[in-house]
Design a protein that fits this description.
The chain is an alpha/beta fold. Helices cover 23% and strands 33% of the residues. The chain folds into two domains: 137 residues, Glucose Oxidase, domain 1, CATH 3.50.30.20; 197 residues, Class I glutamine amidotransferase (GATase) domain (Rossmann fold, 3-Layer(aba) Sandwich), CATH 3.40.50.880. It contains ten helices and 19 strands. The radius of gyration is 20 Å and the shape is globular. The protein starts with a strand and ends in an 11-residue tail after the last helix. The structure holds glutamine (GLN). The site of glutamine has 11 residues, from strand 16. It comes from Halobaculum magnesiiphilum. This is Carbamoyl phosphate synthase small chain.
Length: 355
């Protein structure tokens, strides 16, 4: 007998099995990643969303904190065809509702056809379809989470030490932990800063690179980070990943738009415009850069031609829409971090095009 219900904005209610109890709501998205469930569940970019795994069995190699990308689970709830006990217990201990034993193919197909949509979940002994529908009714559009950065960013600045070869100022809009570690491994000291850090604080650090992280929600709501990029453009080399690329593009006069269901997975093909080389990438985003403004598009998604890489040689800027830190995901694009630090050296301002 069902003890969990998932109500979708298209009017349907799915019966399911409760694996971690609770009631919640969020924008329903799916990932096609077949590994990396710990990294996905701890990726702050999933804040305020409900994450469905299209791969049917989630948890088959356990749960290890060393693979976490942050210190908590970020989606409001998780859905799979089957969660192992390890994952179910972890989500329960985090207070994040989880449901399985439902037709996730149907959910994924609906999101593919109708786009990311609101959903409500009720799971546990007292769950009812009405409770799931009540949750659904209270669901807020992603773009209406106006201060989502505050939910995921650090409150206070701190430094992650590398070898002190470079100083990177990293604006934490909900960063994955492997972004600072990819930089410290390459010799940089990384100064992690709140999402709304002011220009004076950044100027005092006198960074070699100003780097804007990934993060959740609508890039248009990160006005303070955008103003920061505008302030330092042309003065300090700039880099960005995912939300970071979107914020940098907006700061250079560009624009972003909501995609139908976004890119969430570990095998997204990306083509370098100059060399034609294709790399496989890991991705998690629901918005894209519709207009790069004064930046040049260097890389394109092979499936839908959306902008995957941007640059400005004049202002020393390189950004990626995908996740070059590659947790989870193929390691094809780790070279991005070398390109970023090459900019820091004031060396080649023309990034090597193939990562
Ligand atoms: N991973 C990210 O940084 C996601 C960026 C943004 N929130 C989007 O959905 O497009």
């Amino acid at each position: 007998m069902a003890d969990a219900y998932v109500a979708l904005a298209d009017g349907r209610v799915f019966e399911a099995r409760a694996r971690a109890p609770g009631r919640t709501r969020g924008e329903l998205v799916f990932t096609t990643a077949y590994t990396g469930y710990e990294e996905s569940l701890t990726d702050p970019s999933y804040e305020e969303q409900v994450l469905t795994f299209s791969y049917p069995l989630i948890g088959n190699y356990g749960v290890r904190a060393e693979r976490f990308e942050s210190d908590r689970v970020h989606p409001n709830a998780a859905i799979a065809r089957e969660f192992t006990d390890d994952v179910a217990e972890w989500l329960e201990s985090e207070g994040v509702p989880a449901v399985d034993h439902l037709d996730t193919r149907d959910i994924v197909t609906s999101v593919r056809e109708e786009g990311a949509m609101a959903c409500g979940i009720a799971a546990g002994p007292d769950a009812t379809p009405e409770a799931a529908k009540e949750e659904l009714e209270q669901c807020v559009e992603m773009s209406d989470h106006l201060d989502i950065g505050k939910q995921v960013s650090t409150d206070e600045p701190y430094t992650v030490e590398g070898d002190g070869e470079y100083d990177v100022a990293l604006v934490d809009c909900g960063m994955k932990g492997s972004i600072p570690s990819s930089l410290t491994e390459r010799g940089a000291d990384v100064h992690v800063l709140p999402y709304d850090v002011d220009a004076e604080t950044v100027a005092e650090l006198d960074p070699d690179v100003l780097f804007v992280s990934n993060g959740p929600g609508d890039p248009a709501n990160f006005e303070s980070a955008q103003a920061l990029v505008e302030e330092f453009a042309g003065e300090v080399p700039l880099a960005g990943i995912c939300l970071g690329q979107q914020i940098v593009a907006r700061a250079f006069g560009g624009d972003t738009e909501k995609m139908a269901f976004g890119h969430h997975g570990v095998n997204q093909p990306v083509r370098d415009v100059e060399t034609g080389q294709v790399v496989m990438t890991t991705q998690n985003h629901g918005y894209s850069v519709a207009d790069p403004g004064d930046l040049e598009v260097t890389q394109l998604n092979v499936n839908d031609d959306t902008a995957e890489g941007l640059k400005s040689d004049e202002c020393a800027v390189i950004t990626r829409q995908y996740h070059p830190e590659a947790n989870p995901g193929p390691h094809d694009s780790l070279g991005f971090f070398d390109e970023v630090l090459e900019m820091a050296e004031g060396g080649s301002r023309t990034p090597v095009t193939a990562d």
